[in-house]
Please model this.
Amino acid sequence: MDTPENSPLDQPQSPEVADTPSPEPVLSSSENGEADVASMTPADSEAPPPEESSWLADNWRWIAASVLVFALLMYPIARRVMGRPAPPTATPTVALPDLLTLSLQYYQARRYPEAIAICKALLATNPNSADAYNNLGVSYAGLGQWDDAVASLQTALRINPNHQLAKNNLVWITSERQKAAPKEGTPEFFLNRS
Model:
Protein backbone atom coordinates (compact mmCIF):
# COMPACT_ATOMS: atom_id res chain seq x y z
CA MET A 1 0.00 0.00 0.00
CA ASP A 2 1.33 3.42 -0.88
CA THR A 3 1.95 5.78 1.97
CA PRO A 4 1.80 9.52 1.56
CA GLU A 5 5.60 9.67 1.41
CA ASN A 6 5.75 7.07 -1.39
CA SER A 7 2.79 8.09 -3.53
CA PRO A 8 3.28 7.59 -7.28
CA LEU A 9 2.75 11.28 -7.93
CA ASP A 10 5.73 12.29 -5.85
CA GLN A 11 8.17 9.91 -7.52
CA PRO A 12 10.56 11.47 -10.05
CA GLN A 13 9.71 10.90 -13.67
CA SER A 14 11.93 8.75 -15.83
CA PRO A 15 14.23 10.63 -18.26
CA GLU A 16 12.22 9.41 -21.26
CA VAL A 17 9.01 10.97 -19.91
CA ALA A 18 10.72 14.19 -18.87
CA ASP A 19 12.21 14.73 -22.35
CA THR A 20 8.88 14.29 -24.13
CA PRO A 21 7.74 17.58 -25.68
CA SER A 22 4.50 19.07 -24.41
CA PRO A 23 1.44 18.52 -26.58
CA GLU A 24 0.92 22.23 -27.22
CA PRO A 25 0.43 23.05 -30.90
CA VAL A 26 3.03 25.06 -32.63
CA LEU A 27 1.53 27.78 -34.74
CA SER A 28 3.29 29.62 -37.45
CA SER A 29 2.54 33.26 -37.65
CA SER A 30 2.02 35.28 -40.75
CA GLU A 31 3.51 38.66 -41.40
CA ASN A 32 0.70 40.53 -39.65
CA GLY A 33 0.95 38.44 -36.43
CA GLU A 34 -2.09 36.22 -36.96
CA ALA A 35 -1.85 32.49 -36.48
CA ASP A 36 -1.77 30.39 -39.62
CA VAL A 37 -4.59 27.96 -38.95
CA ALA A 38 -4.38 26.31 -42.35
CA SER A 39 -0.90 24.99 -41.65
CA MET A 40 -2.04 23.17 -38.48
CA THR A 41 -2.38 19.43 -38.70
CA PRO A 42 -4.86 17.37 -36.70
CA ALA A 43 -1.98 15.95 -34.69
CA ASP A 44 -0.90 19.45 -33.73
CA SER A 45 -4.26 20.53 -32.31
CA GLU A 46 -5.44 19.46 -28.88
CA ALA A 47 -8.28 16.98 -28.78
CA PRO A 48 -11.25 18.21 -26.76
CA PRO A 49 -11.52 16.59 -23.34
CA PRO A 50 -13.97 13.71 -23.16
CA GLU A 51 -17.34 14.83 -21.86
CA GLU A 52 -17.79 13.97 -18.25
CA SER A 53 -21.10 12.33 -17.53
CA SER A 54 -22.90 12.79 -14.28
CA TRP A 55 -23.90 10.00 -11.97
CA LEU A 56 -27.58 10.65 -12.61
CA ALA A 57 -27.20 10.36 -16.37
CA ASP A 58 -25.41 7.03 -16.00
CA ASN A 59 -27.86 5.54 -13.48
CA TRP A 60 -31.26 6.92 -14.44
CA ARG A 61 -32.58 3.50 -15.41
CA TRP A 62 -31.76 2.05 -12.00
CA ILE A 63 -33.31 5.03 -10.24
CA ALA A 64 -36.52 4.78 -12.29
CA ALA A 65 -36.74 1.04 -11.68
CA SER A 66 -36.23 1.56 -7.93
CA VAL A 67 -38.98 4.17 -7.76
CA LEU A 68 -41.34 1.90 -9.69
CA VAL A 69 -40.65 -1.07 -7.41
CA PHE A 70 -41.13 1.12 -4.32
CA ALA A 71 -44.46 2.43 -5.64
CA LEU A 72 -45.67 -1.08 -6.47
CA LEU A 73 -44.75 -2.33 -3.01
CA MET A 74 -46.34 0.64 -1.22
CA TYR A 75 -49.58 0.68 -3.24
CA PRO A 76 -51.43 -2.02 -1.23
CA ILE A 77 -50.34 -0.49 2.07
CA ALA A 78 -51.37 3.02 1.06
CA ARG A 79 -54.69 1.76 -0.26
CA ARG A 80 -55.42 -0.05 2.99
CA VAL A 81 -54.53 3.01 5.09
CA MET A 82 -56.50 5.44 2.93
CA GLY A 83 -59.58 3.20 2.86
CA ARG A 84 -59.73 2.75 6.61
CA PRO A 85 -62.32 4.95 8.34
CA ALA A 86 -61.27 7.04 11.32
CA PRO A 87 -61.99 5.59 14.75
CA PRO A 88 -65.51 6.57 15.85
CA THR A 89 -64.39 8.00 19.19
CA ALA A 90 -61.89 10.43 17.65
CA THR A 91 -64.42 12.69 15.93
CA PRO A 92 -66.58 13.85 18.89
CA THR A 93 -63.65 14.39 21.26
CA VAL A 94 -61.82 16.52 18.70
CA ALA A 95 -64.85 18.54 17.65
CA LEU A 96 -66.29 19.02 21.14
CA PRO A 97 -63.77 21.49 22.62
CA ASP A 98 -63.50 23.45 19.37
CA LEU A 99 -67.24 23.97 19.02
CA LEU A 100 -67.64 24.74 22.72
CA THR A 101 -64.92 27.36 22.51
CA LEU A 102 -66.46 28.80 19.36
CA SER A 103 -69.91 29.03 20.94
CA LEU A 104 -68.41 30.75 24.00
CA GLN A 105 -66.58 33.23 21.77
CA TYR A 106 -69.80 34.02 19.88
CA TYR A 107 -71.61 34.50 23.21
CA GLN A 108 -68.89 36.84 24.50
CA ALA A 109 -69.07 38.83 21.26
CA ARG A 110 -72.85 39.12 21.77
CA ARG A 111 -73.48 37.17 18.58
CA TYR A 112 -76.18 35.06 20.18
CA PRO A 113 -77.81 33.56 17.05
CA GLU A 114 -74.42 32.21 15.88
CA ALA A 115 -73.71 30.84 19.37
CA ILE A 116 -77.08 29.06 19.38
CA ALA A 117 -76.44 27.58 15.94
CA ILE A 118 -73.02 26.27 17.02
CA CYS A 119 -74.47 24.77 20.21
CA LYS A 120 -77.19 23.01 18.23
CA ALA A 121 -74.59 21.63 15.81
CA LEU A 122 -72.56 20.42 18.77
CA LEU A 123 -75.60 18.79 20.34
CA ALA A 124 -76.33 17.02 17.06
CA THR A 125 -72.94 15.26 17.32
CA ASN A 126 -72.95 14.84 21.12
CA PRO A 127 -76.44 15.07 22.67
CA ASN A 128 -75.11 14.35 26.19
CA SER A 129 -72.93 17.45 26.49
CA ALA A 130 -73.91 19.41 29.58
CA ASP A 131 -71.50 22.18 28.60
CA ALA A 132 -73.22 22.61 25.23
CA TYR A 133 -76.64 22.87 26.92
CA ASN A 134 -75.18 25.41 29.34
CA ASN A 135 -73.83 27.56 26.49
CA LEU A 136 -77.14 27.19 24.66
CA GLY A 137 -79.03 28.38 27.75
CA VAL A 138 -76.98 31.53 28.29
CA SER A 139 -77.17 32.30 24.55
CA TYR A 140 -80.97 32.07 24.66
CA ALA A 141 -80.88 34.34 27.69
CA GLY A 142 -78.84 36.87 25.73
CA LEU A 143 -81.69 37.05 23.20
CA GLY A 144 -84.27 37.31 25.98
CA GLN A 145 -85.77 33.89 25.24
CA TRP A 146 -86.12 32.99 28.90
CA ASP A 147 -88.19 29.81 28.56
CA ASP A 148 -85.72 28.23 26.13
CA ALA A 149 -82.82 29.32 28.35
CA VAL A 150 -84.32 27.72 31.47
CA ALA A 151 -85.16 24.52 29.56
CA SER A 152 -81.59 24.24 28.22
CA LEU A 153 -80.03 24.77 31.64
CA GLN A 154 -82.39 22.25 33.24
CA THR A 155 -81.37 19.71 30.58
CA ALA A 156 -77.70 20.42 31.39
CA LEU A 157 -78.43 19.73 35.07
CA ARG A 158 -80.29 16.53 34.19
CA ILE A 159 -77.20 15.29 32.31
CA ASN A 160 -74.76 16.41 35.02
CA PRO A 161 -76.41 17.31 38.35
CA ASN A 162 -73.06 18.57 39.73
CA HIS A 163 -72.50 21.10 36.90
CA GLN A 164 -71.94 24.20 39.05
CA LEU A 165 -71.80 26.65 36.16
CA ALA A 166 -75.22 25.51 34.94
CA LYS A 167 -76.61 25.93 38.48
CA ASN A 168 -75.20 29.46 38.71
CA ASN A 169 -76.50 30.39 35.26
CA LEU A 170 -79.99 29.04 36.12
CA VAL A 171 -80.10 31.26 39.22
CA TRP A 172 -78.86 34.25 37.19
CA ILE A 173 -81.41 33.66 34.39
CA THR A 174 -84.25 33.31 36.88
CA SER A 175 -83.35 36.66 38.46
CA GLU A 176 -82.95 38.34 35.05
CA ARG A 177 -86.27 36.92 33.94
CA GLN A 178 -88.00 38.48 36.94
CA LYS A 179 -86.30 41.83 36.26
CA ALA A 180 -87.36 41.71 32.63
CA ALA A 181 -90.97 40.77 33.44
CA PRO A 182 -93.29 43.72 32.94
CA LYS A 183 -94.61 45.32 36.11
CA GLU A 184 -98.29 45.15 36.88
CA GLY A 185 -100.16 48.16 35.62
CA THR A 186 -97.85 48.89 32.68
CA PRO A 187 -98.97 48.56 29.08
CA GLU A 188 -96.49 45.70 28.53
CA PHE A 189 -98.12 43.78 31.35
CA PHE A 190 -101.55 43.99 29.72
CA LEU A 191 -100.16 43.16 26.26
CA ASN A 192 -98.38 40.05 27.53
CA ARG A 193 -101.47 38.78 29.39
CA SER A 194 -103.46 38.16 26.27
About this structure: The CA atoms of residues 102 and 118 lie 7 Å apart. The chain has a mean pLDDT of 74. The helical segments are 15-18, 55-83, 90-108, 112-125, 130-142, 146-159, 164-180, 187-193. Residues 55-83 form the longest helix (29 residues).
